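Let's practice the habit of predicting before peeking. Look at the sequence and jot down your guess about where helices and strands might fall. Then scroll down.
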Amino acid sequence: MKSFDVIIIGGGVVGCMTARALSRYDLKVLLIEKNVDIGMGASCANSAIIHAGHDPIPGTLKARMNKIGNPMWDRLSLELGIPLKHTGAYIVAVNDEELSCLTDLKQRAMENGIRAELISAEEMRNREPKVNPAVTGALFTPTAGLIDPFAACIAPLENAIENGVQVMVETAFEDFILENKTIKGIHTSRGDFACRWVVNAAGVYSDEVMHKAGVRPGFKITPRKGEYFVLDQSEFEMQNVLFPVPSAVSKGTVVVGSTHGNALVGPTSTVSPDPEDTAVTGAGLSEIWQSALRLVPSLNQRAVIAVFGGTRATGNATCTASGVDYHHDFIIEVPEEVRGFVNIGGIESPGLTAAPAIAERVIELLLEAGEPLQQKENWNPIRKPRARFSHLSHAEQKALGDADPAFRRIICRCEMVTEGEILAEIHSPLPATTYDAIKRRTWLGTGRCLGAFDMPRVVEILARELGISPLEVTKRGGSSTLLERLTKDVEEQDDPQG
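Done guessing? Here is the structure:
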């Protein structure tokens, strides 16, 4: 049985950031992920916003992690090559009742130590001409921004791998190996592994993991589904982040740009008992579109090129601050019930923003628990980003193509993604082995044609580079094969001469 110092369960943004944080130390670390690729849960189906931190209830762990995590992304973006835009965000009021709520939101921001500014309706219209002309005012939080959520998972984990962390995908956690209330290892779908510590970063399944450790039996994750529209950047461009005045259960439908140029509209926030339910619904899409029109009346559905859904891990945890019980706070703890367990749960929004702070909190908890962490002398914090052909000048594109002819072959015309970029992702420290894995890393297939042109070519490249049949190439792993049979392979029952 292979032995590790720390095993991380879950390859979302929290697990990936934690892996990188642990890679600084002289530890043998393993990260396991049940899916074929990392970042396939809530981390790949969110609004991609780095939240300022005005929204969490003051005194909660969520508020503290949001405030600490937000500025950490500036350094991480530079070290790891993660696209990041500093945009700020606007909470927009469109009537007098909502305008009165902005004062309370500003007070909450001040209590959380977050900069916020009330601006007039006229100033809001000047800053964002597309906003509803009926706007009555807005709250501006300048430290909010936009990030590439896929790179926010992939980049730190690649850096962790380069610093010695091991990763196993398609490896599902099954149970703990316990001895006298001490974790000795885990059972997985690919065998048993010994360890001294387990970090629970299992997202919507974090409650199941902690229950198997005998921790917080009353805690329950209730997944909430969010549905989104993706708008074509050639039809509708949005530079700002526009929120409505929030409700008790959600920040509301946001109209937001992206680091890539597309705009997003969404999400819904509906209870979904199935954590794997990411299907979009007519009712959900209608709801978010009507809500978005209150912010930006000029939205036109002809700009829609895709829809998607995802679930987030809303929990029923409570914490007490100033004598008041607050629900839906983060759990980040080393519980007393079992030794060798770092428990992370209920990481809903702003979990993406808070992820690097959560990772550093894991380090603090290990030190507090007496773990002798020895920093590596040769730890390298830099992950060099790979070339993106569409971002280069003509001279740079020519030089890249001269050095490697694969960069002269355009595979995705909408997004100008080359074969050289695809090959680099297939042979990266964290290999892309499915169509969607390449899509998440290169943005291939995200334009108006939605992969109609590039998919056959990507299948061919994946089959060739992985040494498999084109019939074995999948969209997202498992049974999601893209081809039923080769075009020229006519089955006997289809042959009129047979």
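How did you do? Residues 317-326 have pLDDT under 50 and may be disordered.
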